[in-house]
Amino acid sequence: MSLEQRPRLRLALIASIAVIAVGLRVAYASTHADWMRGDAETYDRMARQLLDGGYLGYSDHSHRSWRPPLYPSLLALVYAVTGPSILAAKVVQSCLAAAAVVVIARLGERLHSTWAGLAGALFYATLSTEIRHSTSLYPETLLALFAAMFALSTTHEQTPRRGLYQGLLAGLMCLMQPGIALLPVLFGGALVVFRKDPRRKLATAMMLGALGVTLTPWAIRNTLLHDRFVLISTNGGFNLYKGNNPHTDVPPTSAMQPHLNAVGAAMPGGSSEVEKDKLWRKAATDWIKANPGAYAKLAARRAFAWVVPSEMIEHPTGWLITYGTMFPFLLVGGFVLVRRRDVTAIGPVLILVATLAPTVIAVYADARYRRPAMAVSAAIAGCGVAAAVGAARAKLVSRGDAAAHGDGPGPIDSSSPPPN
Question: 353-376 pLDDT, tens per residue?
């Protein structure tokens, strides 16, 4: 008897994996209750600023848009309920990871393999990198949950109401990782181009509309604050220059440090933090304007920075956080592809994964220079997605032809996947 015919056992297995996810994270957090590092300290500081001062900044004395706002806002909400308890926030993160486990398992069921879903869920629950970062107050845990929910929604029939839901999820993800904006664009484009159905066109319009509505309040805030259009976030001057200068393309990254030190030492003494930020920003933008070809090369390279050996060795967590967290989706999709040989079943997962690489490109891009950078990455990701969806469409057509001649089954109804 298969798992599909034993729902209680299936639910017990999913619940057990969710308990494992929470248990591992809470156990780790209890031994590192107040431990944070890197960006986690920034998110904690921003949450306390929002709770105490009523504004989202970056430093102690100035409004900023250097970080997307959703995750520090969530931390502020947790602190408001539990007090400024870092341990409580880490417990909440553990519960979010357990929720992601459940959604990943369900995604496997919808993609025609309960065992694939359980394998992906167990991998996510026990992934050491995710355990460390979910208990260090990083936003990737919540991002993975929303991404899993988006992928799961695409396995159902596309309706205008579902499009609204997907647009909201995409908007919330963008408020943590702006590059995710490519996800609804690519998915909606695939629906419109390859599925000639007026309802799906309407669903795509509703999805993009909900995305825009979700982002609009923060974009208005940024525009009023900076006197120029900033959709979600803009980089600090130092980070912007760190990613855009003549030494950026020389691996490993640490080789650039002497150059950064020299530029910083040449700045006028006694400059304030804000003044130095402007000087770093001007140095970066001057280089971009004078070297558009070199900038385009950097943009393309960053899209696949996670596969550059020197970057993987020097900064393992940089690619493990994003790509390691999302690996369960590859595991589920790969299992289904090998076992079922069905590209159509994993189309949404392919689109999700293809969106991940271009998100790296925005790390060192300022708001005004992010558009050409994202255009390059969109072209890279779009080629892969177009090939995947084109193959899926061809397979559906061949199945339909075979069914018409009585030679085989017709297209799969995505609303009711076949049993294992």
Answer: 656 555 555 556 666 665 565 555
Tell me if residue 368 falls in helix, strand or coil.
Answer: helix
- Say what the pTM is: 0.77
Contact 154, 187 (CB under 8 A): yes
Single out the residue of 163, 216, 171 nearest to residue 187, CA to CA: 163
Buried b vs exposed e over 324-354: b needs ≥16 C-beta within 10 Å? bbbbbbbbbbebbbeebebbbbbbbbbbbbb
Q: In whole angstroms, give the CA distance from residue 211 to residue 165.
A: 9
- SS3 of residue 63 by DSSP: strand
Are 306 and 319 spatial neighbours (Cβ–Cβ below 8 Å)? yes
- Report the C-alpha gap between 265 and 306 in whole angstroms: 32
Instruction: Render pLDDT for 54-105 as a digit per residue (tens, 0 to 9).
Output: 777 766 556 777 788 999 999 999 999 988 888 899 999 999 999 999 998 8
Residues 241-290 have pLDDT tens digits of 888 888 876 666 667 888 888 888 888 877 777 788 888 888 888 888 89
Q: Which two tokens stand for residue 404?
A: 């018409």
Closest CA to 136 of 50, 41, 72: 41
CA–CA distance, 236 with 297 (Å, rounded to integer): 22
pLDDT, position 32: 77
DSSP 240-259: HHHTSSTTTTSSSGGGGHHH
Q: Which of 277, 295, 269, 270 is nearest to 226 (CA)?
A: 277
- Amino acid, res. 148: A
Least Cα distance to 375 among 364, 362, 363 occurs for 362
Separation between Cα atoms, residue 44 and residue 325, nearest integer Å: 21
CA distance 313 to 333: 27
The domain spans of the chain are 3-404
Cα distance between residue 182 and residue 174, in whole Å: 9
* Tokens (6 digits) for 171: 């908007």
pLDDT at 406 over 60: no
